[in-house]
Design a protein that fits this description.
Layout (H helix, E strand, L loop, with lengths): L11 H37 L4 E6 L2 E6 L2 E4 L2 E4 H23 L3 H24 L12 H27 L7
Antiparallel strand pairs: 1-2, 3-4
Helix pairs in contact: 1-2, 2-3, 3-4
Length: 174
């Protein structure tokens, strides 16, 4: 319902609510776009650096990257396959940044699906490799604990991101 003041203009409180909501949605989109942009830079370095491994320092941020390993749907790719698997990663990150910054409907769908995909891939990876379900050789208990600790820390953050994207979906999906 549209609220008008008696003078015929917009109700000031209604306008303030809309502006606050748009501002918060912009913060969420900006944060996710920054993470995607950093992922794109990291993957670009992984493709271009001959040694295939290193650190990228951007101010207070330090990203470690490698082209020796990539994970898709919990399955680990190494060597040449990892190099090839880096290309779709890079394309997804670049598309996510563009889609969020231009508030495209497909950009929101892409980012929302990818944010939901991440914890699923992490959990599958944890079962396949540290627990040894795929390889038949479980890792040391310290590695298994570290992997599950990582999931315990990252899962709430990923679900929070998905929740915030869902909350502000009307500003992206029109």
């Amino acid at each position: 319902m549209v609220k008008y003041s008696r003078s015929g203009g917009w109700d000031a409180q209604f306008v303030e609510e809309i502006e606050t909501r748009a501002y918060r949605a912009g913060l969420v989109a900006g944060a996710v776009a920054l993470v995607a942009a950093l992922g794109a830079v990291k993957d670009l370095y992984a493709l271009l650096k001959p040694s295939g491994r290193g650190q990228l320092i951007l101010g207070f941020l330090m990203l470690r990257y490698t082209r020796l390993e990539r994970v898709w749907f919990g399955y680990r790719f190494t060597g040449q396959a990892a190099l090839l698997a880096t290309i779709p990663h890079l394309l997804i990150y670049v598309a996510a940044v563009y889609g969020l910054m231009t508030r495209r409907r497909w950009g929101w769908y892409l980012v929302f699906a990818y944010v939901l995909y991440i914890p699923i891939s992490e959990a599958i990876f944890a079962f396949f490799y540290p627990l040894g379900w795929l390889t038949g050789h479980p890792h040391d208990q310290s590695v298994v604990r570290a992997e599950w600790f990582f999931i315990a820390v990252s899962l709430p953050l990923e679900l929070l991101t998905a929740g915030l994207l869902w909350r502000y979906r009307d500003l992206f999906v029109r």
